[in-house]
What does this fold into?
Amino acid sequence: MKNIPMHVAFIMDGNGRWAAARGKTRRAGHEAGAEAVRALIKNAGAAGIKFITLYAFSNENWQRPEAEVKDLMNLLSRSLDEFDKTSKDNNARFLVSGRRDRLPEKVLKKIDKIIAATAGNNGLTVILALNYGARQEVADAVNALIAAGKKNVTETDIAAVLYNPSVPDPDLIIRTSGECRLSNFLLWQAAYSEFYFTPVLWPDFDNAELEKALEVYAGRKRRFGNV
Ligand code: IPE
Ligand code: IPE
Ligand code: MG
It folds into this structure.
């Protein structure tokens, strides 16, 4: 297939509804969602995608019941261990996008370890958007520029102090579960992204669904304001 997007960002939504439809707990829904991520990491690399961003936990998700937040952090911690073990074999590089504050110490330690351990890998780059908010990202960038003494800023200045300045803007943003909104995701970087919304719930987003999305993307004409 030609015209493969270099960077695809995923708003992995619908774990709760997937679980509710099966009479399962929300926790079971998140576990099933993590399973879908595992498969995606394999399939995205095989499809020729170079970067994937996974929206795993938003700034706003702290508002959820304490028990669910705890379940999500525990699941995250286990998923990081697994990524740590498999990254040698699949040559994946790991990055994080988001704030460090409020994240459990054990999660931060694992993140730092995996980023360092995979820095030299040149396969798929997996960016985990964790404790992430796009408005926060822009505000943090502006504060960094103020701290650097800037009196006047350009677009390039702002882009250079976002959480991962070396990562190219997403070519394609996919949101599952039928919601058609960004929910505070990549507001700056999405300026010219293509969007793909599907009613499929995240745990059901398999390789066939990824291929469907890539096919739709391949048929899009990106003009960037030109003719
Ligand atoms: C996405 O699934 C996972 C996170 C936001 C952490 P949800 O938990 O939002 O599932 P729904 O939207 O309630 O179905
Ligand atoms: C967006 O999903 C955040 C993640 C997928 C991590 P939400 O379920 O939190 O979004 P809203 O609340 O429906 O907008
Ligand atoms: Mg949701």
